[in-house]
Amino acid sequence: MAQQPHLDPSPFFLEGGSIGVLLIHGFTGSPPEMRLIGDYLHDRGITIAAPLLPGHGTSLEDANSRKWREWTDHVAGALTDLQARCEKVFVGGLSMGTLLTLYLAAHHPEVPGVVLYAPAAKVDNRLIYLTPVMKYVIPVRAPSSESDLVDPEAKYRLWAYDAYPVHAAHELLKLIYQVRRLLPRVVCPALIFHAARDKHIRDEGAQYVLDRISSEDKELIVLRNSGHALTVDMEWEAVAQRTHEFVQRLS
Questions:
Q1: Which of 102, 147, 235, 249 has the greatest number of CB atoms lying within 10 Å of its CB?
Q2: Is the model's pLDDT at 2 over the cut of 70?
Q3: Beta partners for 13?
Q4: Percent of the chain having pLDDT more than 90?
């Protein structure tokens, strides 16, 4: 079921100071892909919460039974819980996690800033546009065997399903459309990372988000030596450092 069964896909919470960061994993993934960033920030006094999205970390059948609003409701609850502990709570996400991050920012203007790791507003897999029909024929399909990760150790930091839940992918597509419409409502500062070697996100996807959010304080950083899961790949520590600087500046 999982590509790296030695990892625990459970959510994690790291108690720190009065500044919090909510870290949201990607589609078919789990909180371990946010662990390096979380540990880096926590070591510098920040409280970290990394929830497990509904339908993830369990089974493909569970994933295919979920709706996109379950994901948005879950992260909204996680945000509320962390805000009850911290004075300020930033939100960061990887891939689909960026969509949920943007969704929260559009509905919660009190969020002081967002960090988008490989924003998924424009995905490179054109099959996703066939999922409304394909899900009834092929509910689960094999994923691409080609990896874009640069660090050979990076794959051991990822717990993800070893197949592609097509019903869930249709819900992801619905979420993409929802978030695209919401982009102008995002006004908080935004730090955006795009990996030049990313084979899952279209090259113009990060720029698309940058151009459409209404934030005056926004920056796009292009990583030359990372793949899609840039939170665990070769340049993860530089990503963590820039994330920390962003949070510190706005705190």
A1: 102
A2: no
A3: 49
A4: 90
Under 8 Å between Cβ of 134 and 127 = yes
Instruction: List the structure tokens of 1.
Output: 């079921």
107: annotated active-site residue: no
- The token duo for 69 is 């609003």
Q: What is the pLDDT of residues 95-150, one digit of tens each?
A: 999 999 999 999 999 999 999 999 999 988 888 889 999 899 999 998 776 789 99
Q: How far apart are CA 202 and CA 213, in angstroms?
A: 18
**3-state DSSP percent of the chain in helix, strand and coil, to 5:** 40, 20, 40
Selecting among 30, 56, 95, 226, the annotated active-site residue is 95
Q: Tell me the backbone φ, ψ of residue 99, rounded to 5 degrees.
A: -65, -45
Domain ranges of the chain: 12-250
Q: Which helix (H) or strand (E) holds 116?
A: strand 114-117
pTM attached to this predicted model? 0.96
Q: What are the angstrom distances between the C-alpha of 29 and each of 64, 136, 220? A: 14, 23, 24
The residue type of 214 is: S
Has 18 been annotated as catalytic? no
- Dihedral through CA 140, CA 141, CA 147, CA 149, nearest 10? -20
Q: Which of 50-59, 70-79, 140-149 has the lowest mean pLDDT?
A: 140-149
Q: In whole angstroms, what is the distance from residue 148 CA to residue 194 CA?
A: 13
CATH number of the structural domain 12-250: 3.40.50.1820
At 14 the pLDDT is 98
- Active-site choice (198, 226, 233, 244): 198
